[in-house]
Amino acid sequence: MKHAHVSAARGRTVEKPRHFGDTEAISAKETKRSRVKTFFKGLCAALMLALPLSVPATAQDAAPGPLRITITDGVIEPLTVAVPPFVARNPAAQDLAEDISRVIAADLSNTGLFREIPRDAHISRVSSFDAPIEYSDWKAINAQALITGSVLVEPDGRIVVQFRLFDVFSEQPLGDGLQFVGTADGWRRMAHKVADAAYSRITGEGPYFDSRVVFVSETGPKDARQKRLAVMDYDGANVQYLTSSDSIVLAPRFSPDGTKIIYTGYESGFPRVTVIDVGTLEKQTVGGVDQNMSFAPRFSPDSGRVVYSAEVAGNTDLYVLDLASGTTNRLTTAPSIETAPSFSPDGSRIVFESDRSGQPQLYVMPASGGDGSRISYGEGRYGTPVWSPKGDYIAFTKQNAGRFHIGVMRTDGSEERLLTGAFLDEGPTWAPNGRVVMFTRETAGAQGAPALYSVDITGRNLQRAATPAAASDPSWGPLLQ
Amino acid sequence: METRTAVAISGTAHAGLLGWALISGLFAPVPPEDSIEIAAVSVISSAEFDAMIAAAPADVPPAPVAPEAPATPDAPAPAPAEETPPPQSVARPETPAPSAPDAQPDFSQIAPPPQADVAADTPDAPAPPAAPADDPTAELSDRPAPRPADIVSTRPSPAPPPMVDTAPTVEAPPTPEPAEEEPAEPSEAPAAPEETAPIIVTEADTPGRAPESSTRPSRRPNRPTPVAAEEAPSEAPEEPEPPQQVAAAQQSEPSEPVEDTPAAIDTSAALAEARGGGTPAPAAPAGPPLTQGERDGLRVAVSRCWNVFSLSTEALRTTVTIYMQMDPNGVPNPNTLRLVGFEGGSQAAAQQAFEVGRRAIFRCGRDGFDLPPEKYEQWKEIEMSFDPSQMRLR
């Protein structure tokens, strides 16, 4: 009883301060509110008083600096370019001048970044290489860039090509004029050089028109396909065959210096890594131990080493071969399949494909070997990674949901972007400037055949490369010297 | 002793109980049940009943006492001739229930409906029952509300509703148009198509994230240009003292962060003014600042020609700022264009981005930008920044 009384008393003593506290809080709130009101009243009054002072000052100081405008939205459309026929400086150069200007226009148009204005729309005729440019005539047909040039065939047969590039709307030349000298049979290369210069000058990207591509030319039905090594200009011209169709060849790769090609050949019945000299067509089998299969070779950036994968005792790992000394170093020791290695352009790292996680994914490891770290985490299976010559992206093949894709991602796996999607796209290779990717696309069905396609890394301008027959496994060589 | 006490307690308790019972009325006599009211009923014939219904006011519930003949022979009585209570037939005319008219002679006097008019006005309407059709229906077929015209009755009670119901059904057919709009917008999946053309547009192009040209609204129309260099240009829309008001509004605009610098200058000038210093005395009348619409007009005009497609990947990460002086006709002076700053890329990338920006300025400004001449002092110098960060993602 006593205890109950005490608790009741305690309850009262607890309750009382609570009620008192509430009223205190309320009164405190009201006080605070009134203070805030007073503050805002004061603030408003101050502002009202300050307004007449500041407004005339603003108006008086209306003599401003430059008007500042920020442009964030633009348009994405091909840049219009006019390529009038080059001026033939002597009669012998007449045909050559026409051909060279046509190749230049085709090179630029094939990039998708340019649109040539047809010649019949031209108002001005360039009759002299040194004549001043009638900018108004080119503005009238909305030509943003203008390429003029001249061709001279010298008595010794050499040809001299000069050209200038103009920004029409700015009414000034873009850079200095250039001159190339070469032999008559190399006129296409000279045209590519001119186009490269114009392309680089306008876009800021590196050149790539004057380059070659090695690929596997395929003839015959699907079940009895004959495969030969072939080399062509980037645009499909000047195809040359390096091997006969007696044995199968796979996965040719240009050396970074452009003098050698390495591929997997079946001359001995087993897949062997073979190096062929482009100039002499001399072959040399390298790497791999007898009775072991080696494949997916690729040169190091200095062209002195070859990294490849080999199956030894049922386990496929990566190896690197020094071409000068013939020594081989094993780079990986995992029980899974490691294949498709590719050096970074500085030679410090290697990206490769491994199924150690259960399905093929991409990994990057130091060039000296190691476990590597995984960089691909999207859905599907990743394979055939290739490091960009600029070092900023890695191109790859991706298989997901029954479709194949060519994609690019940053070297840490971020910013993955799929550029294509089809029944079968595979085997990307980079243009020398790291802006364009070429790959193999094979169509479905018994009549399906592979072909070479190229695409800009923005995913735009997908184009089929002109090859005389079916073609696969492209490898883009370096810019010719 | 104890017994006496117990008896006393018991007696007291019983007495109390009885007293409570008496007070609370437990033994009170049961009140008599409510007396049943008995009404006198007289049997009438159906004819008399119909006459009574016709004579009764429409909305008044029945007072079946006076079955005398109706004083208004033209009254619109539906008269279904049933023993059902009269309110039923009055209140629900849409279900006329033409059952058993019994061939009463009164019908010939009461219902002379002009049936021909009804059929002409509402040809598609279901034919109303013959008996309850009344003369108001002829007018009701034209308009939904009955017109109290030459009808004797004070209120047009029963007949209109069926025609009100049928009239909407006649007008209903013109309404199927909304239904036709529904089967639209087949949403196609943006899958990569198999290509057959030599130049193929991939899925990166198809969704149209990168429009071919800007879809911004066009620039503002030209205002009638007042005489330049006036103190208070009359174009100011709202207030009689435009320079101050517009300047203040301009100062409070949060949309253009790059343009904060003039505001900072304004603040310093205001401070100088507040300190009582002399008037800054601008060199030339500047006119009011450009409105947001005028700025947007200039921005859109340049955007239409800013083609970033040919920018290199590095130049796409470079923001360049180009300074230019403008001629009074809105044409940029080509000799004054220069690169005043860049960020995010190398010098080469900045040079390339500068050339693309310069090309945009000259292409779309060759005929002059649409800028208000009376505000020339505001835009005779322009610093234009080209920020391709948003375009990089397209």
From TrEMBL, chain A:
<keyword id="KW-0732">Signal</keyword>
<keyword id="KW-0574">Periplasm</keyword>
<dbReference type="GO" id="GO:0017038">
    <property type="term" value="P:protein import"/>
</dbReference>
<dbReference type="InterPro" id="IPR011042">
    <property type="entry name" value="6-blade_b-propeller_TolB-like"/>
</dbReference>
<protein>
    <recommendedName>
        <fullName>Tol-Pal system protein TolB</fullName>
    </recommendedName>
</protein>
<feature type="domain" description="TolB N-terminal">
    <location>
        <begin position="67"/>
        <end position="173"/>
    </location>
</feature>
<comment type="subunit">
    <text>The Tol-Pal system is composed of five core proteins: the inner membrane proteins TolA, TolQ and TolR, the periplasmic protein TolB and the outer membrane protein Pal. They form a network linking the inner and outer membranes and the peptidoglycan layer.</text>
</comment>
<keyword id="KW-0132">Cell division</keyword>
<comment type="function">
    <text>Part of the Tol-Pal system, which plays a role in outer membrane invagination during cell division and is important for maintaining outer membrane integrity.</text>
</comment>
<dbReference type="Pfam" id="PF07676">
    <property type="entry name" value="PD40"/>
</dbReference>
<keyword id="KW-0131">Cell cycle</keyword>
<dbReference type="InterPro" id="IPR011659">
    <property type="entry name" value="WD40"/>
</dbReference>
<dbReference type="GO" id="GO:0042597">
    <property type="term" value="C:periplasmic space"/>
</dbReference>
<dbReference type="InterPro" id="IPR014167">
    <property type="entry name" value="Tol-Pal_TolB"/>
</dbReference>
<dbReference type="Pfam" id="PF04052">
    <property type="entry name" value="TolB_N"/>
</dbReference>
<dbReference type="InterPro" id="IPR007195">
    <property type="entry name" value="TolB_N"/>
</dbReference>
<dbReference type="GO" id="GO:0051301">
    <property type="term" value="P:cell division"/>
</dbReference>
<comment type="similarity">
    <text>Belongs to the TolB family.</text>
</comment>
TrEMBL record, chain B:
<feature type="compositionally biased region" description="Low complexity">
    <location>
        <begin position="186"/>
        <end position="198"/>
    </location>
</feature>
<feature type="compositionally biased region" description="Pro residues">
    <location>
        <begin position="73"/>
        <end position="88"/>
    </location>
</feature>
<protein>
    <recommendedName>
        <fullName>Cell division and transport-associated protein TolA</fullName>
    </recommendedName>
</protein>
<feature type="region of interest" description="Disordered">
    <location>
        <begin position="63"/>
        <end position="294"/>
    </location>
</feature>
<feature type="compositionally biased region" description="Acidic residues">
    <location>
        <begin position="232"/>
        <end position="241"/>
    </location>
</feature>
<feature type="compositionally biased region" description="Low complexity">
    <location>
        <begin position="244"/>
        <end position="255"/>
    </location>
</feature>
